[in-house]
Amino acid sequence: MRFLPVIAFFALGIIWGSNFIYMKLAAHLISPMQVVFFRILFGFIPVLLYAYYSKVLSLSHLKHFRHFIIMALLAAVIYYFGFVKGSFLLPSGVAGVLSGAIPLFSFLLSIIFLKDEKTDKFGFLGLLLGFLGVVTISGIFTWHVESLSIKGIVYMLSGSLSVGASFVYAKKYIMPLRIPVVALTTYQLGFALLILLFITDFDGINRVWSDANTAVGLVLGLGLLGTGLAYIIYYYLIEKFGSIKAASVTYLPPVVALFIGVVIVGEDINWVDYISAGLIFLGVYFINRKKSR
Fold first, then answer.
1. Are residues 284 and 126 in contact, defined by beta-carbon separation less than 8 angstroms?
2. Sequence-separated (6 or more) residues with CB below 8 Å from residue 239
3. Residues in contact with 271: Cβ distance below 8 Å, sequence separation at least 6, in sequence order
4. How far from chain centre, in Å, is Cα 191?
């Protein structure tokens, strides 16, 4: 069981890395906010059933509802909407590099707001290597800057900042509550769903069911795995590793997306991509290495 946190770390990277293709498919049929609504709905239902069956829910937990609402906004509504909208407006490579800013935001906020979150020179080196790997793997240097959507960049950075801040907020305010991770996920997604019920325009939302592959990807890929299971692992990693190390998991999705593109879509891969993937994994290693005594 001592390897479970490491297994969970890479599992979350794989799950989140596969989300981009599902978001792109769904965003061609329905609006980004509708994609977010379905994603949270189909993530919330199975988690709620599991939490109820496990008897981890308690009315006494709701006295902390303010924290759950903030987490619902930071780690679900704002984060998901920013990434769906940004991925739709930008080339996937550029969207990938901007999503790689998550651990940088988390690192900076952790240093500012968390006294017990410290890193050493290897942690700094890991952050730099990981971000360099994300930048080079994205292919951003091959794009003309004037052709990029400023709105798309703002949306992606907003989503990255939001989820990066959520790692810090969860570490400081949520984990000390000692509430089971399944219950935390249930409350977060439940409040996010309530918020979306008031702000989502449901006109034309059923168009997503016109394509079977998109529908399956939305329900299973984005909902059950990418939201429900992902956030159970998310809280678990924050509890085990802290916010800085847990946030480094967000360096893995670009590598996963590259693998999906090569193996499933049939895209070409060159030596720069292999070097970039190596930099990312090396960065993750340095961030998560234990300090020598």
1. yes
2. 175, 181
3. none
4. 18
Nearest to 38 by CA among 202, 163, 235: 202
Residue-wise pLDDT tens digits, 86-122: 888 876 666 766 777 787 788 888 878 887 766 677 7
Output the CA–CA distances (angstroms, integers) from residue 204 to 27, 42, 63, 199, in the order listed. Answer: 12, 18, 37, 15
Whether the Cβ atoms of residue 197 and residue 16 lie closer than 8 Å to each other? no
**In sequence order, what are the residues at sequence separation of 6 or more whose Cβ sits closer than 8 angstroms to the Cβ of residue 6?**
none
Terminal Cα-to-Cα distance of the chain (whole angstroms): 24
H/E segment holding residue 93:
helix 92-99
Number of DSSP helices (H) and strands (E) in the chain, helices first: 15, 0
Rounded Cα distance, 161 and 153, in Å: 12
d(CA 77, CA 163): 10
Tell me the pLDDT of the chain averaged across its residues. 84
Angle value at C-alpha 270, between 268 and 274, nearest 5 degrees:
115
d(CA 57, CA 54): 8
- Rounded CA-CA distance 82/41 in Å is 18
Q: Which residue has the tokens 């988390």?
A: 106
Instruction: Give the pLDDT confidence score for residue 262 in this predicted structure.
Output: 65
Instruction: Identify the residue whose tokens are 């829910």.
Output: 57
